[in-house]
Structure formats: structure tokens, C-alpha cells
Amino acid sequence: MQRLILAALAAAALAAPALAQEPAKPAGPSNQCFRMSQIDNHTKGDDQTVYLSVRHRDVYRLGMSGNCLAGASSNDALVMAPTAGVDLICRPLDLDIKVHTNPGMLSPCIIKDITKLTPEQAAALPPKIKP
User: Fold this and answer.
1) Mind listing the pLDDT tens digit for each residue in 81-114?
2) Helices and strands counted in the chain (H then E)
3) Element housing 5 (H / E)
4) What torsion do the CA atoms of 30, 99, 54, 82 make, to the nearest 10 degrees?
5) How many CA atoms lie within 13 A of 21 on its CB side?
6) Residue ranges of the domains in the chain?
């Protein structure tokens, strides 16, 4: 009986640290996150880059895997949706993005990275691609 009690106590002691851990946090610093509802504008930088204006002050660069933006113009609509149903975007997997190029045609993109530009980097963007 004592062995059974000792085994139960040992199992509880091993499980306690796992239960006490903090919940998983998004990758990257919290200032890297933004809400999809706060996106004001977008522009196409090149065949693999989209720039987003967020809250009329922040600029984010979305790097795409592949050339999903080839043939798209800055005027083409982006169809964006959060993947987990949550408005908070912190990681590439948090956002589903497609380019609406022709009537009824959606070209899916895979986001490989999201980078918040510093004010200096945003100011250095050519006027043609500033969101």
C-alpha cells in the first residue's frame, strides 16, 4: 500500500511542473503582432513581398514563399482571413492570404515571414510601394 502511495506522489510531483508552465505565447515579440481589423492598406513590393499599413502608422512586410504575386498588381484585392478565427496576427500561420486577380480567380499565397519595419525602414521605402 505504501508503495502505491509513494508511486502516486512521485507521479504527481513529476506532473506538477508541466501543469505550472505558462500557456504558449506567440512567436516573436508582442509588438510584432497586429490585428487584422487594423490593416488600412496594402501594396505589392515585388513577386514575393506585400507591405501592409497598420493603424496608419506601422508598416509590416510579408514575405511570400514562391511567386504567388507574379502577375498581380498593387490594385488587385487581397483576400485575407485569420486561420484560427482570431483577429490577432503574430506568425505567418495566423493569416491566410489570397490574391484576387481575375473575376472569380483567387491565387493562394503561403506567408513565410512577417516583419514589422522600423520607422526608418518604412520611410526608406520607395513612394511607389509605400502602403
Assistant:
1) 999 888 999 999 999 999 887 777 888 899 999 9
2) 2, 8
3) helix 2-20
4) -40
5) 8
6) 30-129
